[in-house]
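Handoff note, outgoing to incoming analyst
You'll be picking up this chain. Sequence as last confirmed:
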Amino acid sequence: MRQPAYRRVVLKVSGEALAGDQGYGISREVVQSIARQVREIRELGVEVALVVGGGNIWRGADAAREGMDRATADYMGMLATVINAMALMDSLEKHGVETRVQSAVQMQEVAEPYIRRRAIRHLEKGRVVIFAGGTGNPYFSTDTAAALRAAEIEAEVILMAKRGADGVYDSDPNRNPNARKYEELAYLDLLNRGLQVMDSTATSLCMENHIPLVVFDIGRPGNIMRVVLGERVGTYVRGGDGR
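Most recent structure output, in case you need it:
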């Protein structure tokens, strides 16, 4: 029996990752791949929470730049994350994984309200919990929601799943063939070097709460398992205490 390196994880899945190669909407193949990989790590006894973005459906920041009220645009983005969460829930349950969606924006017909102690209890019972609705507040990204929920549920690591990016580079590898990949970084490096892994609020939250981060390519099947087993996949970002 393979022994996981982590007992409780937060898997952050961007909306762009859910779109797959089609670039918009929800890719059935991607959602099923994520569900299979989550089932595999659940079978090892790992407690799994997901935080999902909504950029495959709506990007509030882009709409705000085009003149829409920022708060309105962000609330629309929160609704998009609930759509993605429901798609993931459906696929996970079809793969035999008991799942609960908790939304920071209350919509009781389709999701539980976010309650920290209830979320932890679900995890302890072996259920996967999907956190939707971001933080429930405009002006905050779903990366910040991932950092906040990870701190609240005392997760040991955040697994930041990217599509087509196998880690953190010093420049865009799609534009610069000589871009250098970092194997390991500190959160201060992200801030000081302006590396666009997550926004500064999320970075500070992770650093202050000593939560490590692994940035990896979710497009390669089996990567979630590799990360959970402690293999060095992607880029490892150390928590504020140097771990």
